[in-house]
Design a protein that fits this description.
alpha/beta, Rossmann fold, 6 strands, globular
């Protein structure tokens, strides 16, 4: 299995989380400069559309990119605190299909001070007529950063749902 992990703004995939993902397959985790590349989703699509990726994952800004990329690539996705409703840097969203024909598992921290979970739910509420299958996990123990134990628990749950 090939996993594409998309980091958040000024972030990266830490080794401990990479180890969790490598239990399931090969991990690709490109470095993305969101501040200087407003077309990061299109760039990711062009880089990985022929790479036989099986799953898209991401957190925060990477969750935003992963959400849209999963629809472009028609792949299931696991996104943590995706910056869907608002972002601190400008990003262009290419035209994407309404659904990825699979599911998007979304993990939201109810205490997140960076990505407002209520705004994310309102964003999704506007899309209710689309036939995208969402699985939403609202974690009351979670802020913006994803602790390793929560990351592992949610990855296990997601992989078990495939």
């Amino acid at each position: 299995m090939k996993i594409l992990y998309i980091h958040g703004l000024n972030g990266s995939l830490i080794p401990e989380k990479r180890e969790v993902l490598e239990r399931y397959g090969t991990v690709r985790a490109p470095s993305i400069d969101y501040e200087n590349n407003p077309d990061s989703i299109t760039w990711l699509h062009n880089q990985y559309k022929k790479a036989n990726i099986d799953i898209v994952m991401g957190s925060s800004m990477g969750g935003f990119a992963g959400y849209h990329l999963s629809k472009l690539l028609q792949l299931p996705a696991l996104v943590f605190n995706p910056a869907l409703a608002e972002r601190s840097v400008v990003q262009n969203v290419p035209h994407t299909p309404e659904t990825n024909k699979g599911h998007i598992h979304m993990v939201l921290g109810s205490k997140d001070p960076v990505v407002n979970p209520k705004a994310t739910l309102q964003f999704l509420g506007e899309l209710l007529m689309q036939e995208q299958d969402y699985r939403i996990s609202i974690r009351h123990d979670l802020e913006h950063r994803i602790p390793l134990d929560v990351f592992e628990e949610e990855v296990v749950k997601f992989m078990g749902s495939l």
